[in-house]
Design brief:
It contains 8 helices and 14 strands. The protein is α+β, with helices and mostly antiparallel strands and about 325 residues long. It folds into 2 domains: about 110 residues, PurM-like, N-terminal domain (60s Ribosomal Protein L30, Chain: A); about 160 residues, PurM-like C-terminal domain (Phosphoribosyl-aminoimidazole Synthetase, Chain A, domain 2), CATH 3.90.650. Helix 2 runs parallel beside helix 3 and helix 5 packs antiparallel against helix 8.
Length: about 325
């Protein structure tokens, strides 16, 4: 492991996992939970607690901005554990010289996102740093959600279905295209959206059949699947022909040599569920705006234990490795 922090240590890939396990948890202790949120026992019952910091550049992009991203990202980290998001904090590190109207626009966006997700922004903190030290603005949001039942985590078994609620790679490619002024990428939009309504609808009817949920942000779908299978006696097979990837995303990825399966999403949930109810779950998702393009994209299998892989359209198989570095830094 490097003796200095690298950009890849924040990538969501192998180096970040090494940093968490070999440095952060080693010092802070095993009480640091590694899921999307920590599950805590309180006198009033179980809650989910999460925190996240957003450093996206540019701070405004097609389909969203750093404020909307901060609220929805925190809401989603609570929702994928089956919690009902309720309260959010807002901590801001603002660079000296930021236009006051830019700040107001970000705050209005946060308020609109919180109202739509039906959560309250209840506390926060503001710091100002010298010009050149914060790239405009960084935002930290923490969130609390109520767990009426246990977290949506059950043993995963071969035969289970892999489901996603819509198109893959939209957020990362939209941000990257805006950052680099790619004129040929017009029409790309981030998928930034809250998932709590969608997840509440699914868990209400299918909680006992859902094995696992996670929002595939940094590192994308492939990285989440690698996390799921890395210590299991099963593999995760994606079917290329079933992957919902927009033509615009495909085109940019092919041109720049990127793999959309490793590109960040900010309005998607990757869900593992029992095969016998998977079609019903997809139908339920499609009744909600954020799940209109839901699709079964793969299967948990006995083949290649501990590996995620792609069954290609020509009949072959391609291993999806756990990447060391992130393809697109600073996208969330």
């Amino acid at each position: 492991m490097s003796d200095r922090i690298l950009a890849a240590h924040g990538s969501g890939g192998k180096l970040m996992n090494d940093l968490i396990e070999k440095v952060i948890r080693k010092i802070l202790g095993d009480s640091v939970q590694l899921d999307d949120a920590a599950i805590l026992d309180t006198a009033g019952g179980k809650i989910a607690f999460t925190t996240d910091t957003f450093t996206v550049t540019p701070i405004f992009f097609p389909g969203g901005d750093i404020g909307k991203l901060a609220v929805n990202g925190t809401v989603n980290d609570l929702a994928v554990l089956g919690a009902t998001p309720r309260f959010i904090s807002c901590g801001m590190v603002i660079e000296e010289g930021l236009d006051m109207e830019v700040l107001a626009r970000i705050l209005r966006s946060m308020r609109a996102a919180a109202d739509y997700a039906e959560v309250s922004i209840v506390t926060g903190d503001t710091k100002v740093v010298p010009r050149g030290n914060a790239d405009g603005i960084f935002i930290n949001t923490s969130g609390i959600g109520i767990l009426s039942e246990g977290a949506t985590r059950q043993p995963i078994t071969p035969g289970d279905s892999i489901i996603i609620n819509g198109s893959i790679g939209d957020h990362g490619i939209a941000v990257m295209a805006e950052r680099n002024n790619l004129s040929f990428s017009r029409g790309l939009h981030s998928d930034c959206a809250p998932l709590n309504r969608l997840i509440a609808a699914v868990t209400r009817d299918f909680a006992g059949s859902i094995r696992f949920m996670r929002d595939p942000t940094r590192g994308g779908v492939a990285s989440v699947l690698n996390e799921i299978v890395k210590e299991g006696n099963f593999g995760a097979r994606l079917t290329e022909e079933r992957l919902p990837i927009r033509e615009e995303v495909h085109g940019v990825c092919e041109l720049l040599g990127l793999d959309p399966l490793y590109v960040a999403n900010e309005g998607k949930v990757l869900l593992i569920a029992a095969k016998e109810v998977s079609e019903e779950i997809v139908a339920c998702m499609r009744e909600i705006t954020e799940g209109a393009a839901a699709q079964i994209i793969g299967t948990i299998t006995d083949d290649f234990p501990g590996r995620a892989y792609l069954e290609t359209s020509i009949g072959g198989s391609r291993i999806l490795p756990h990447l060391t570095e992130e393809q697109l830094p600073r996208i969330c």
